[in-house]
Design goal:
Elements: H1 2-15, H2 21-29, E1 36-37, E2 42-45, E3 54-58, E4 63-69, E5 75-80, E6 86-90, E7 95-96, H3 141-150, E8 154-162, H4 173-176, H5 189-195, H6 212-215, H7 232-240, E9 242-248, H8 253-256, H9 259-275, E10 279-283, H10 292-309, E11 313-314, H11 316-320, H12 353-372
Parallel strand pairs: 8-9, 9-10, 10-11
Antiparallel strand pairs: 1-4, 1-7, 2-3, 4-5, 5-6
C-alpha cells in the first residue's frame, strides 16, 4: 500500500512541476520538534570551512535537526525540518533546545554535494558495448570500504537502491530466502553466505515509480521509519548501515526527468553514498523499446558518472542485448520474468531478464567482496 501510494505521489508531483509538494511537505513536518533554531539568517556551507561553497541559507527562526559535529564542536552538520537545506553551520550561531548537548553528536567530516555544469558532449560518444558486464576495475572501492568501517558500516549488508526493477521479489531476494539453484556458478555460494539475509531486505530507497530526484527528497521517505527531513537514501543507509549499495535508475527517469536533472541527481546519489562510507555499484538499466535512443543516452550518463567517481559499474545493458527482446517483458520496458524462479541460475532461465541480472549482480558482489572488502592476509 505504501509503495503504491509513493508511485501515485511521484507522478502527481512530477506532473505538477513540484509546486504542489511544498505545502504538503510543510504540513507533514509542522508537528516535528526542532533540536535547535536560527535566531537570524545563517549561511550553510558544504564543509566546516567558511572559504568553501555556500550550499544554502537558513531563514531567521528556522528549526533544524542536528546530525553531527566537528571534533572541536565549532561546527555542526544540520538540516532544516523539511530537509530542503542541509550542510554545515557555525555551532555558535544556533540556539539549542534545553536537552541538547552537541558534544554527544557523532563526529563527521561529510561534505555536501555541489553540482557541476551539465556537459552533454562528455557522454555522447560513449559506446555502451565496450564496457564489461562485470567490472574488472573496482576503482576506489577499497578506500570507500575502509572509510565505511570507520563509520561502523556493516560489511555483511548490501542495500538495493532504485525503482520497480529493483523493488521486485525476483531481484536478489531469493538468495536471502535460500530459494536458489546455482547450477554451474557454485563459486557464488560464499558471497551469498557472506551477505546472507540482507539480500532479501526490503529497501527504504527502492519502490515503484521512484526517480533519482525523489530518492533524495524527504517528501518521499517512509514516515514510519525515517527521521524528519531525512531522504529515502539517507534513511536506508542509517537504518541498514550497509557497506555496499547496488544502484540502478533510469527506466522511470527517462519518462519524467531531463538528462541534465538525471545527471545531477545521479551524481548526488553517488556522492552521498561515498560520503556515507558505502561502496556504490552503479548499473546501466534495461532499455525501453519505445524510447530506445533516450535509453542509450541515459545509460551513457550512467557510465560517465561511474567513470567520473571511479566506482564499480555493472553493464546490464550489454548483458541483456543477446537475450530475446533485449531481456524485456512483452511491455518493452520491464525485465522479463523467470521461467522457473528468480534464484534459478540454470538453463533457459538465464535467457530471462531477472535471473541474468541476479547472476551479474552476484558476480560483481563476489569480485568486490574478494578484492576490496577482505582484510589484508584473509
Amino acid at each position: 500500500m505504501w509503495r503504491r501510494l509513493c508511485l501515485l505521489i511521484t507522478v502527481i508531483i512530477i506532473l505538477a512541476a513540484g509546486t504542489s509538494a511544498i505545502p504538503a511537505r510543510v504540513h507533514a513536518q509542522a508537528s516535528v520538534s526542532a533540536q535547535a533554531w536560527t535566531p537570524y539568517a545563517i549561511t550553510v556551507y558544504r564543509s566546516p570551512d567558511r572559504s568553501d561553497h555556500i550550499v544554502g541559507v537558513l531563514a531567521p527562526e528556522t528549526g533544524v535537526q542536528l546530525e553531527g559535529r566537528t571534533s572541536d564542536t565549532a561546527w555542526v552538520l544540520t538540516h532544516s525540518l523539511d530537509g530542503i537545506v542541509r550542510g554545515w553551520v557555525d555551532s555558535g550561531y544556533l540556539e539549542y533546545a534545553p536537552d541538547i548537548d552537541i558534544t554527544g553528536l557523532p563526529i563527521s567530516d561529510e561534505e555536501m554535494f555541489v553540482p557541476l555544469p551539465f556537459a552533454p558532449g562528455r557522454y555522447r560518444n560513449i559506446d555502451l558495448s565496450t564496457y564489461p558486464v562485470v567490472p574488472t576495475d573496482l576503482g576506489q572501492a577499497r578506500a570507500i570500504f575502509e572509510s565505511g568501517q570507520q563509520q561502523n558500516r556493516k560489511p555483511t549488508v548490501v542495500s538495493k537502491i532504485g525503482d520497480c526493477l529493483t523493488d521486485n521479489q525476483y531481484f536478489l531476494s531469493p538468495f536471502g530466502w535460500h530459494e536458489y539453484n546455482l547450477g554451474n556458478f557454485v563459486q557464488l555460494q560464499e558471497v551469498i553466505s557472506h551477505f546472507s539475509l540482507s539480500l532479501s531486505y526490503d529497501s527504504l530507497a527502492a519502490y515503484d515509480g521512484l526517480v533519482t530526484t525523489a530518492v533524495l527528497d524527504p517528501a518521499f521517505a517512509n514516515p514510519m521509519a525515517c527521521l524528519p527531513g531525512e531522504s529515502p537514501l539517507r534513511c536506508e543507509y542509517r537504518i541498514r548501515q550497509p557497506s555496499v549499495a547496488v544502484i540502478m535508475f533510469g527506466a522511470q527517469d527517462l519518462l519524467f526527468t531531463s538528462p541534465a536533472d538525471f545527471d545531477r541527481s545521479l551524481r548526488r546519489i553517488v556522492h552521498e553514498t561515498i560520503q556515507a562510507g558505502v561502496i556504490p555499484i552503479l548499473s546501466t538499466f534495461p532499455g525501453n523499446v519505445r524510447l530506445w535512443d533516450e535509453s542509450v543516452e541515459y545509460n551513457q550518463i550512467v557510465v560517465l558518472v561511474a567513470l567520473d567517481y571511479n566506482v564499480p559499474l555493472i553493464n546490464l545493458w550489454r548483458a541483456l542485448e543477446p537475450l530475446p527482446n533485449h531481456g524485456l517483458n512483452t511491455d518493452g520496458r520491464h525485465l522479463s520474468l523467470p521461467v522457473t524462479t528468480g534464484g534459478d541460475l540454470t538453463g533457459d532461465n538465464l535467457r530471462q531478464g531477472y535471473p541474468l541480472r541476479n547472476l551479474v549482480t552476484l558476480q560483481t558482489l563476489d569480485a568486490l567482496w574478494r578484492t576490496a572488502m577482505q582484510q589484508p592476509g584473509a
